[in-house]
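Predict structure. Input: Response regulatory domain-containing protein, 132 residues.
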Amino acid sequence: MPNDRKARVLLLDDEKFLVEIYKIKFEKSGYEVSTYYDVDDALKALRKGYEPDVILFDVTMPDSRSGYEFIETVQKEKLAKHCLKVALTNEGQDGEIARLVELGADAHLLKTNFIPSEIVTTVTEMLKTRKR
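Output follows.
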Protein backbone atom coordinates (compact mmCIF):
# COMPACT_ATOMS: atom_id res chain seq x y z
CA MET A 1 0.00 0.00 0.00
CA PRO A 2 1.51 3.35 -0.99
CA ASN A 3 1.99 5.75 1.91
CA ASP A 4 0.11 8.55 0.14
CA ARG A 5 -3.30 6.86 0.19
CA LYS A 6 -5.71 5.56 2.79
CA ALA A 7 -5.92 1.83 3.38
CA ARG A 8 -8.89 0.39 1.52
CA VAL A 9 -11.46 -1.92 3.09
CA LEU A 10 -13.97 -3.99 1.15
CA LEU A 11 -16.78 -4.73 3.58
CA LEU A 12 -19.23 -7.51 2.66
CA ASP A 13 -22.17 -8.25 4.96
CA ASP A 14 -25.91 -8.55 4.39
CA GLU A 15 -26.72 -6.80 7.69
CA LYS A 16 -27.02 -3.21 6.48
CA PHE A 17 -27.13 -1.71 9.96
CA LEU A 18 -23.86 -3.42 10.91
CA VAL A 19 -22.25 -2.45 7.60
CA GLU A 20 -23.02 1.22 8.27
CA ILE A 21 -21.60 1.03 11.80
CA TYR A 22 -18.41 -0.68 10.58
CA LYS A 23 -18.09 1.82 7.73
CA ILE A 24 -18.32 4.80 10.10
CA LYS A 25 -15.78 3.27 12.50
CA PHE A 26 -13.30 2.43 9.72
CA GLU A 27 -13.66 5.86 8.08
CA LYS A 28 -13.11 7.62 11.42
CA SER A 29 -9.88 5.61 11.70
CA GLY A 30 -8.68 6.84 8.30
CA TYR A 31 -9.77 4.00 6.02
CA GLU A 32 -11.46 4.23 2.63
CA VAL A 33 -14.43 1.85 2.73
CA SER A 34 -16.41 0.19 -0.06
CA THR A 35 -19.54 -1.60 1.13
CA TYR A 36 -21.37 -4.53 -0.42
CA TYR A 37 -24.44 -6.41 0.75
CA ASP A 38 -24.15 -9.47 -1.45
CA VAL A 39 -21.41 -11.69 -2.82
CA ASP A 40 -22.04 -11.04 -6.51
CA ASP A 41 -21.65 -7.26 -6.19
CA ALA A 42 -18.43 -7.61 -4.19
CA LEU A 43 -17.00 -10.07 -6.73
CA LYS A 44 -17.97 -7.74 -9.57
CA ALA A 45 -15.95 -4.91 -7.99
CA LEU A 46 -12.92 -7.16 -7.51
CA ARG A 47 -13.16 -8.47 -11.08
CA LYS A 48 -13.15 -4.87 -12.33
CA GLY A 49 -9.81 -4.36 -10.61
CA TYR A 50 -10.69 -2.94 -7.21
CA GLU A 51 -7.69 -3.66 -4.97
CA PRO A 52 -8.52 -3.41 -1.27
CA ASP A 53 -5.94 -3.80 1.47
CA VAL A 54 -8.48 -5.69 3.58
CA ILE A 55 -11.54 -7.75 2.76
CA LEU A 56 -13.85 -8.11 5.74
CA PHE A 57 -16.64 -10.54 4.91
CA ASP A 58 -19.57 -12.17 6.67
CA VAL A 59 -19.78 -15.93 6.33
CA THR A 60 -23.55 -16.39 6.66
CA MET A 61 -25.68 -14.34 4.30
CA PRO A 62 -29.13 -15.93 3.88
CA ASP A 63 -30.20 -13.76 0.92
CA SER A 64 -26.91 -14.14 -0.95
CA ARG A 65 -24.28 -16.72 -1.68
CA SER A 66 -22.23 -17.54 1.41
CA GLY A 67 -18.95 -16.10 2.55
CA TYR A 68 -17.46 -19.53 1.90
CA GLU A 69 -18.39 -19.25 -1.77
CA PHE A 70 -17.08 -15.69 -1.81
CA ILE A 71 -13.62 -16.46 -0.42
CA GLU A 72 -13.34 -19.60 -2.53
CA THR A 73 -14.08 -17.58 -5.70
CA VAL A 74 -11.64 -14.84 -4.66
CA GLN A 75 -8.90 -17.45 -4.30
CA LYS A 76 -9.73 -19.44 -7.45
CA GLU A 77 -9.84 -16.32 -9.62
CA LYS A 78 -6.78 -14.83 -7.89
CA LEU A 79 -8.63 -11.63 -7.00
CA ALA A 80 -7.15 -9.25 -4.43
CA LYS A 81 -4.10 -11.49 -4.10
CA HIS A 82 -2.15 -9.26 -1.74
CA CYS A 83 -4.83 -8.21 0.70
CA LEU A 84 -5.76 -9.39 4.17
CA LYS A 85 -8.93 -11.51 4.13
CA VAL A 86 -10.87 -11.56 7.40
CA ALA A 87 -14.04 -13.59 7.98
CA LEU A 88 -16.73 -12.30 10.33
CA THR A 89 -19.04 -14.91 11.84
CA ASN A 90 -21.49 -15.48 14.64
CA GLU A 91 -20.12 -18.96 15.33
CA GLY A 92 -16.62 -20.13 16.05
CA GLN A 93 -16.66 -23.87 15.60
CA ASP A 94 -13.31 -25.46 14.80
CA GLY A 95 -14.56 -27.02 11.57
CA GLU A 96 -15.82 -23.66 10.34
CA ILE A 97 -12.53 -21.92 11.13
CA ALA A 98 -10.50 -24.67 9.45
CA ARG A 99 -12.67 -24.49 6.34
CA LEU A 100 -12.30 -20.70 6.12
CA VAL A 101 -8.51 -20.94 6.40
CA GLU A 102 -8.43 -23.74 3.83
CA LEU A 103 -10.45 -21.57 1.42
CA GLY A 104 -8.11 -18.60 1.84
CA ALA A 105 -9.14 -16.52 4.85
CA ASP A 106 -6.21 -15.06 6.78
CA ALA A 107 -8.20 -14.55 9.98
CA HIS A 108 -11.56 -15.18 11.62
CA LEU A 109 -13.34 -12.84 14.03
CA LEU A 110 -16.48 -13.63 16.02
CA LYS A 111 -18.90 -10.71 15.76
CA THR A 112 -20.19 -11.44 19.25
CA ASN A 113 -16.71 -11.05 20.78
CA PHE A 114 -16.00 -7.57 19.40
CA ILE A 115 -17.69 -4.20 19.30
CA PRO A 116 -17.18 -2.46 15.93
CA SER A 117 -14.35 -0.21 17.14
CA GLU A 118 -12.49 -3.31 18.39
CA ILE A 119 -12.82 -4.89 14.95
CA VAL A 120 -11.20 -1.78 13.46
CA THR A 121 -8.39 -1.93 16.03
CA THR A 122 -7.86 -5.65 15.43
CA VAL A 123 -7.76 -5.24 11.64
CA THR A 124 -5.34 -2.31 11.99
CA GLU A 125 -3.02 -4.45 14.10
CA MET A 126 -3.25 -7.31 11.59
CA LEU A 127 -2.25 -4.93 8.78
CA LYS A 128 0.70 -3.60 10.79
CA THR A 129 1.88 -7.14 11.55
CA ARG A 130 1.50 -8.13 7.91
CA LYS A 131 3.72 -5.24 6.75
CA ARG A 132 6.62 -6.28 8.98
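The beta strands are 8-12, 32-36, 54-58, 84-89, 107-110.
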